[in-house]
Amino acid sequence: MSQSALITGVTGQDGAYLARLLLDKGYRVYGFMPRRSTDTSWRLRELGIESSIEVIHGDVTDLSSLVRGIQASAATEVYNLAAQSFVGSSWDQPLLTGQVSGLGAANVLEAVRLVRPETRVYQASTSEMFGLIQAERQDENTPFYPRSPYGAAKLYAHWMTVNYRESFGMHASSGILFNHESPLRGIEFVTRKVTDGVARIKLGLQPELRLGNLDAQRDWGFAGDYVQAMWLMLQQEQADDYVIATGQTTSVRRFCELAFAHVGLDYEEFVKIDPRFYRPAEVDILQGKPAKAAQQLGWHARTSLEELVSMMVEADLERVSRQMKGRTG
Ligand code: NAP
Ligand code: G4F
User: Fold this and answer.
1) Closest ligand 1 atom to the C-alpha of 100?
2) Ligand 1, from 14, 177, 178, 188: best to mutate by most atoms within 8 Å of Cβ?
3) What local confidence, expressed as pLDDT, does residue 2 receive?
4) Mean pLDDT by groups of 10 residues along the chain of 329 residues
5) Ligand 2 test: best mutation among 189, 257, 272, most atoms within 8 Å of CB?
6) What is the pLDDT of residue 326?
7) Torsion region of 74: left, alpha or beta (phi above 0 gives left; psi -120 to 50 gives alpha)
8) Whether residue 129 is found in the same domain as residue 207
9) What DSSP designation does 178 have?
């Protein structure tokens, strides 16, 4: 029987890369997406897969739309990537974040249990659940300590995934993914904000780049590598939880240094600190220990930070140049 997958959050960074991976593997891919008044499919277009996705309109806060989506697709695998995923906004919209990123996951699990309990489920968990870290390097056994409404909502979703697995025997896995980036990353996240800023400064469109806490450290990998781990989790005989990370940590400051150096500039001349971008509570440092994923899934991060920075800066230089030509042409 051919495989079919339903992806919530298909228009996001990970959704787009995952959809491409599954299409390449011969899956029928259903994109579960809310109707929006503006176009949200630019990532699917950039990867050249928009017309290959079968769209099902729905919202993870609406259980009935999920039930219908799972019935209509008869999906053998469901990947729940939908979220209000920007940590910064989660203090401004704590309840919405809880409804989408927390209860939304419970709705997905419940819909699968009601309609097709044999369907395998992937839940997009996050290293933000470690928050105020309780171990120098975080793995599947490290206690959680979320530091934002987003982290708290995701922790609820994570435990619901574990509980549906243990209570109902469902094949539900939770991928605890550390930060992963790409040219398709949303512009509000720090890496893309930096690489877009570098391109604009280099091309003379912007004089400076305003950022918050440069001392925060993250374990940054490439999203294209990470979606492979999501798929691998659902191919295992037993569902489980896995930390997915590079194992290296780098400061925002160092990321800036690398990105500006890529175009021959010194970040110190252009980056300005703006307290507006500080958060009410900060996650100072994250560094994953992905040994279980290496042993059980055979998964390793393949892309180095330097390759990632170069890929993102080059993509933004090209994008901004295209926009400039569009304006003058
Ligand atoms: P993203 O680019 O922000 O994408 C989020 C997706 O969710 C978008 O397609 C968005 O659609 C959709 N969405 C939002 N509200 C929804 C709703 N109520 N119903 C259905 N869809 C909804 O996030 P990402 O970086 O691809 O991350 C994918 C998932 O992994 C998220 O759950 C995120 O929290 C988690 N995660 C990400 C990272 C990372 O570093 N990227 C690390 C760990 C975990 P619209 O654009 O139309 O709103
Ligand atoms: O890029 P960020 O906004 O990502 P953050 O908060 O780590 O969250 C991302 O990764 C999580 C996995 O750990 C995901 F679950 C989540 O959905 C999201 O994808 O911020 C990274 C760091 C923070 O410490 C922040 O304070 O960069 C610091 N930072 C400094 N200046 C900034 C800025 N962040 C943003 N977004 N904008 C700034 O100007």
Assistant:
1) 18
2) 14
3) 79
4) 92 98 98 95 98 98 98 98 98 98 98 98 98 98 98 99 98 98 98 98 98 98 98 98 98 98 98 98 98 98 98 98 85
5) 189
6) 85
7) left
8) no
9) P
Residue 194 Cα to ligand 2 middle (Å)? 12
| pLDDT at residue number 1 | 58
Same domain, 134 and 233: yes
- Claim to verify: residue 258 and residue 318 sit in the same structural domain: yes
The pLDDT of residue 72? 98
Would you say residue 295 lies in a domain? Answer: no
Domain check: are 254 and 233 in the same one? no
Identify the residue whose C-alpha is closest to ligand 1 atom 5: 12
140 with 267, same domain: the answer is no
**Of the candidates 228, 232, 249, which has an alpha carbon nearest to the alpha carbon of residue 240?**
232
pTM of the full structure: 0.98
Residues 6+ away with beta carbon under 8 Å from 129:
144, 146, 151, 154, 155, 158, 176
At 328 the pLDDT is 72
Q: Spell out a b/e string for 207-219, using b for 16 or more CB atoms within 10 Å of the CB, else e.
A: eebebbbbebbbb
Ligand 2 centroid to Cα of residue 231, in Å, is 25
User: Which secondary structure element, helix H or strand E, spans residue 316, and what is its range?
Assistant: helix 305-328
